[in-house]
Amino acid sequence: MTAAIETEALGRRFGPVAALDGVDLTVPHGTVLCLLGHNGAGKSTLVDVLTTLTRPTSGRARVAGYDVAAEPHRVRRRIGVTGQFAALDDRLTPRATLVLLARLHGLGRRAAQSRADELLELFGLGEVAARALRACSGGTRRRLDLAAGLTGRPEVVVLDEPTAGLDPVSRLALWDVVRELARDGAAVLLTTQDLAEADRLADTIAVLRRGRIVASGTPGELKARVGSRAVTVRPADLAGAERALRAGGLVPAPDPARGTLTVAAASSRQVGDVLRALDAAAIDPGELTLSEPGLDEVYLALATPDTPDPGVPNRDASDRGVPDPGASDRGTPDPGASDRGVPDRGVPGPAMPNRGMPERGVAGRGAA
Ligand SMILES: Nc1ncnc2c1ncn2[C@@H]1O[C@H](COP(=O)(O)OP(=O)(O)OP(=O)(O)O)[C@@H](O)[C@H]1O
């Protein structure tokens, strides 16, 4: 069985700007791929291409087995698309809205009602199910927007920052929905700026930077790739401890405000090295903590636009003595480099995507 989403050397240019620059992605059924990236990395453009809102200018993308450029109608029938409620009568209730949409997806009256009730419950909309839409809050409309995209039980769901602006309870509820969708066999691609969200939800995280995937893997793999557990000690004699660690061949990072020294320690042997170096100088480590790398480190090392390109030696990382996140990507010249520095959205592209199209908007931004 082919993957639910497959892209191959996918590119989308807007005039001189390469919003997507050779993106290769695979999202199998039953899995969640979280796309992380800085502002302007190309996340929305990728979502727009996959949901047929904009056409690629190079490469290919297949969604649910259909090419997005050659068979956009077939793709649209199989993806979780939201935004429909914007075009509906504001006097309708959330329940009536969902029933109507389910019927438009070909369900009979009974089946449509039960699908609507299922979604109302899933999105915690039970209490407002019978309230007119015009009297519903922005958050409620947002959740309804997401629910509306699922009325047809899509096999591929693409969510652009689905939890941005949701309150914490709604956010957790949406995470449950996403996991449930994947358990039921759907492929979910979601973009997020929320690292906790990616950590909790993703089977795979892909890091997009300036239109290119610079790293992908499970959350655990990415964390292991940038890092680096660290040992932090809080000795009484900070300067003496720093000298002792350096004498032991280690590279401590002092934090005088906290009175701590931190040393990257990829293996347990290196944890021992820290203790031995201090012991050799008869220095008590004081408090000792061992910390695991987090996704925030992954983000800082890989996703921020100022990070050196994967094709360029990463001086910062090697200076800190931590493994270089770009190491495995080396050797690939960066064809997008010449596009850089072009002001964002300054140049109108050949075909401006209509992000606001109510009948084909994708879950997420601006829906509230
Ligand atoms: N219609 C357009 N015309 C010109 N440039 C565009 C257009 N749409 C996107 N771009 C440019 O393409 C690049 C990628 O933009 P995109 O919106 O996909 O990024 P993003 O990762 O979604 O960012 P954000 O998190 O800020 O929404 C940016 O440089 C952006 O300015």
Automatic annotation (TrEMBL):
Region (Disordered): 302-368
Membrane topology, as annotated: Peripheral membrane protein
The entry's keywords: Antibiotic resistance, ATP-binding, Nucleotide-binding, Transport
Matching Pfam families: ABC_tran
Entry keyword Nucleotide-binding: yes
Gene Ontology MF term list: ATP binding
Tree of life domain: Bacteria
Record-annotated ABC transporter domain positions: 5-235
Subcellular localization: Cell membrane
PANTHER family: ABC TRANSPORTER ATP-BINDING PROTEIN, DOXORUBICIN RESISTANCE ATP-BINDING PROTEIN DRRA
UniProt-recorded name of the protein: ATP-binding cassette domain-containing protein
Source species of the chain: Actinomadura gamaensis
